[in-house]
Amino acid sequence: MRKLQNLFIALAALCFAMPAFAQSGSAVVDFAPIGIGLGMGLAAGLCGLGQGRAVASATEALARNPGTRAGIQLLLVLGLAFIESLTLFTLAVIFAKIK
Q1: pLDDT band at residue 81, thresholds of 50, 70 and 90?
Q2: CATH number of 32-99: 1.10.4160.10, 1.10.630.10, 3.30.750.24, 1.20.20.10?
């Protein structure tokens, strides 16, 4: 864990040291690609975790009470669509921000 922490500290230092070692005046640093990558990665990863938990809960509910399949399936599909729309909304915001 300590090695991973040191790696991230070194990467952060390299990322933010770019304008400090610039030869010509003050450099404009564009952090948009880093933010876009982090934002989309977080959105996709967390939505994936949410979808996994939703499917696991629906499967457990169906195992306990198979007679409620239609209602659980409807709510599961609706919930998965809402979760997936969060990732697509993040992607749309990123494309709108890029210009």
Answers
A1: very high
A2: 1.20.20.10
